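Peptidase inhibitor I9 structure dump, as promised
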Amino acid sequence: MKKFSIPNLFKPVALASAIGAMLFSCQPTEDNLPLDASSELAVVKFAAGDIIPGKYIVVLKPSGLNLRKSMGYEEVQSSMRKTTVSLLSKYRISEANLDHIFGNTIEGFSISLSTDEAQALANDPAVSYIEPDRMMGIAQKGRPGGGGGSTGQTTPWGITRVGGAVNYTGSKKAYILDSGIDLDHPDLNVNASAGFNAFTSGKDGRSLDDGNGHGTHVAGTIAAKNNSIGVIGVAAGAQVVPIKVLGATGSGSYSGVIAGINFVAATGNSGDVANMSLGGPYSQAVNDAVVAAASNGIKFALAAGNESQNTNNVSPGSANGTNVYTISAMNSSDSWASFSNFGNPPVDYCAPGVSVQSTWKGGGYNTISGTSMATPHVAGILLLGNISTNGTVKNDPDGNPDPIAIR
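structure tokens r here:
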């Protein structure tokens, strides 16, 4: 047998088995459901990192489809679906089992399979590897809370620490792979027309609006407007694009996240930025998708995670490649945030991640902590150009202090 065993197919599971129960444990788990509330799995409750029973991510050997620049997103999707359906027909697996199709980063698909069907596909010469699909969660420390209003504009300490805000005048976009964005927040320049929703049914599938608050918070740190209200972002006024891969509970699936990365790779331009303040146990498929998308010139800012462990155990934080930056967190004294994951590599920079004030759902504002909050500081810097540094973080537990990112 090949590609379908504990050392191979389930290698990501074995790698993270000791930490799976606690990974992203800062997230509330009592309401975390599968992507589609209407699915038969909706009666089961999941935590971030959990395997979704019967769901798999199948990665094919590359054909070069994603290198065909003349083909748009829909054309690549259509071509990849035809290839996929042809493969499935060999094993009498119904096309109705298909979920997401990937073609602009990794080539492959997500699907519902029996164990025998997964084994059969894993042995096909066209298949590179198969992983179990899992739940993905936000990289925020503590439970989401309510957001208050604002009577006048303030500059959060983190914005000041990374070099202050700049009124953004460029044309590049910040893709927020998260829980959506408050579409009519007065302090954000949201480009919903360029967005993507990984949810196909249920409440989360109806809109790119943010039902959690997390994605809106991330967007504000990157690009809140320089006006008379609320807060200001690093690249003030830049376009923020909702790529909704997490629901109102702050959870989604690995396959949905890869679908979001796939869309960004297909529709983004060189110099655009993608922020991924989310994570779960190690996944080769997630990492491969990030690295492939970043090779097209899109800059990815990735949260290191909040479990006080080595970032090499988590994805997408463990991804490494050109235009890929993994971010740890510090407090206002330049001291290590006790919750932050560590390890250099893959961690590239440290940024403000404790008691960070930013925009929130419902037109509000909120102060929260996490590597989720550190990462968009660097995403904002990347929109403005290159990252500079100013000192190193104190008390880095790996003994190799991360440089502090500034613009």
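The chain is about 20% helix and 25% strand.
lmk if u need the other ones
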